[in-house]
Amino acid sequence: MKKIKKLIILLVSGIFVTAGLQAQDNSQQLVVPLSNPDKPGKLIVSLNSGKINVTGYTGKEVIAEVATDQKTYEAGTRDGLKQIPNKSIGLTAKEEDNVVKINSSNWNKEINLSIKVPKNFDLTLKGINGGEITVNNVNGEMDVNNINGGISMSNISGSVVASSQNGNIKVGFVSVKGNTPMAFSTFNGDVDVTFPASLKATLKMRSDQGEIYSDFDMNIKKSVPKVENKKEEGVYKIAMEEWVIADVNGGGPEMSFKNFNGDILIRKK
Amino acid sequence: MKYLMGILMTIATFTHLVAQEKEEVIKKAVSFENTSNPTLWIDNISGGVEVAAYNGTNVILEITKHIKADTDEELAAAWKKLNPAIITGSDTVEVYVEGVCDCDSRKGHYWRECDNDYNFNFDFKVRIPTHTNLWISTINNGDITVTGVNGKLKINNINGGIKLEKVSGPTDVHTINGDVYVSYTQNPDGKSSYYTLNGKLTVYFLPDLSSDVNLKSFNGKFYTDFAIADVLPSQLVTTTEGERGMKYKLDEKTAVRIGKGGVLLDFETFNGDIYIRKL
C-alpha cells in the first residue's frame, strides 16, 4: 500500500514537472528588478490587444510573462511556400524609481500578458481589445480601464477605480483603504463589488436600465432636485438626480457605481 | 462653357510651347588604379542605375542626362550647372551628379538652395569588372539593377525598386517604396540585410543555405520553401534609459534557423510580404 502511495506521489509530481516545463517552452519572460526593492512600487500596463493578468506574490521583482506562438509553420501557403508565423511581441518594460511601465509595440496581434508583482504595488492597467483584465492578491491603489472586455479583481486591498465599456466589473475586497473615494463604471455589463462588512462609505449608485442590489444596511438619502439656470437662453430647468445616494455604517468617502445596461450588486463579505 | 474651354486650350498650348527639354548621352571609361579590391560608388539623385559585370577591368559609364525647364534660358543654365562628376581614388571610383542644389552631393545633401526651375534626370548604365564592391544610391525616378557582380553590395533607393541578379557577397539593400529582388550565385558569407517599407521582398538562395534568419514586418507575411530547422526565442535587449531608468525589451523580430545556422540574415518590411526562396 505504501509503495502504491509513493508511486502515485511520484507520478503526480512527474506530471507537475512536465506541465511546468511546457509552460516555460511556450512563454517568454521579462524580469524587471526594482530600484528600491523594499519600497512599494507601481506598475503601468497598456495593451491594445490581449489579456492582462496581474498577481501579487512574495518576491521583489516584476516578472512579465508572454505566451508565444511556438509553431514552426503557419497553416497558410502560397506558391508552394510555407508560411512562417510572425512571432513578433515587441514587449518593452521600463523601470525608473520603482515605476515599471510595460507595453507592446504590437498592434494587430493578441498577446496574453501575465505579470507577477510584489504584493504591495499600485497598478494602472489599460486594455482595449481581446480580453479580460484580471488582478489577484494585490494591495495598493489601482486604476483599471478596459474598453471591450471585463475586469475581474479578487483578494484586493487598497482602493480601486475600474471602468469598462463592454464588460462586467467584478471586484472583491479584503480590506479597504480609508478615506479614499472609488468608482466602478461600465456601459454594458454588471457591476459587482464585494466589500468587508466594516465598510464606511457614502455610496452613489445609478443603473439606467438595470437594478441595484445590496445586502448592506443602507441609509438612503433624499435626492435633491438639481436646478439648472441658463440665463442666456432664458431657460430654467429643474431635474431630479437619477443617482441613488446612501450611507453605509455612517457614511464616509464617496464610492460611485454606474452602468447603463446591467445590474449593480454591492455585497457584504 | 465655350469660353472656359477656350481658356483651358490657351493654357494648354501655352505650357506646351514653353516647356523645353534636352537630352544627351555621356560616355566615359575609368580604370581603378588598384584592382585588388575595388569599390564603385554611384550617388545619383533622380534616375535609375543599371550595373552589369563584364569581362574587363575598366568602369564603363553611359549616362543619359535629361533636363526639362520652362524657358530656354533656364534650360541652358541648368544644362551648364548639372553634370556627372567622377572622382578616382586608388581603389575607388565615385560617380555623382554635380551642381544639384548648389552643393556637392558627396559632402551630404544640403537642400537649402533647392528652388529649382527645372527637372533633371540622370540614368546610369555602368559596366564593371565582376569583382567589385558596390555602393549605389538614388532617390527618385528609377530602379537600381545589378547583374553578375561579386563583392560587398550596399544598395539604397527611396522611390524605386532594387533588383540584384546573379550576385554574390554580403548584401545590404534598403528602399522605401519599391520591391526588392535578389538572387545569388553563391550564398552570402557575411551578415546581410534586406529592407523595404512598401514593397515585396524576394530573395533566392542556393539550397545549401545555413543561416540564422531574422524576420520583421508590420502587415506582411513570411513565406519560405526552405526547411525551418529551429524557431529561436526572441532576444532580450537591456538598455539604460536616462539616469536611473532601465529598459528591458523582447525583440520584435521573429528568429528562425535554416540549416545549421551561421550567417545572420535580416529581413524587414512594413507592408509587403517576405519570400525566402530556394533556387
Can you tell me about this structure?
The complex is a heterodimer of chains A (269) and B (279). By secondary structure, chain A is mainly beta. Chain A has a domain at 22-149. Helices cover 9% and strands 57% of the residues of chain A. Chain A is built from 1 helix and 23 strands. In chain A, the strands form 3 sheets. Chain A has a 5-stranded parallel barrel. In chain A, strand 19 (225-230) and strand 20 form a beta hairpin. The longest helix of chain A is centred in the first third of the chain and has 24 residues, at 2-25. The two termini of chain A are 44 Å apart. Chain B has 279 residues and is mostly beta strands. Chain B has one domain (19-210, 222-227, 263-278). In chain B, 10% of the residues lie in helices and 53% in strands. An 11-stranded mixed sheet of chain B has the order 5-6-2-8-10-12-14-22-16-21-18. Chain B starts with a helix and ends with a strand. At the A-B interface, strand 1, strand 4, strand 5 and strand 6 of A face strand 16, strand 17 and strand 20 of B. Strand 6 of chain A pairs antiparallel with strand 20 of chain B, so a sheet runs across the interface.
Topology readout:
The complex is a heterodimer of chains A (269) and B (279).
Chain A: H1 2-25, E1 27-33, E2 41-57, E3 61-67, E4 74-78, E5 81-84, E6 91-96, E7 99-104, E8 111-118, E9 121-129, E10 133-136, E11 139-146, E12 151-164, E13 169-176, E14 182-185, E15 191-195, E16 201-207, E17 212-214, E18 218-220, E19 225-230, E20 235-240, E21 244-248, E22 254-259, E23 264-268
Parallel strand pairs in A: 2-7, 2-8, 2-9, 2-10, 9-11, 10-12, 11-12, 12-13, 12-14, 13-15, 14-22, 15-23, 16-22, 17-23
Antiparallel strand pairs in A: 1-3, 3-8, 4-5, 6-7, 16-21, 18-21, 19-20
Chain B: H1 2-18, E1 20-31, E2 39-43, E3 49-54, E4 58-69, H2 72-81, E5 83-88, E6 92-98, E7 118-129, E8 133-137, E9 144-147, E10 153-156, E11 162-167, E12 171-177, E13 180-184, E14 192-198, E15 201-205, E16 211-217, E17 222-224, E18 228-232, E19 236-241, E20 245-250, E21 254-258, E22 263-269, E23 274-278
Parallel strand pairs in B: 2-6, 2-8, 3-7, 3-9, 8-10, 9-11, 10-12, 11-13, 12-14, 13-15, 14-22, 15-23, 16-22, 17-23
Antiparallel strand pairs in B: 1-4, 4-7, 5-6, 16-21, 18-21, 19-20
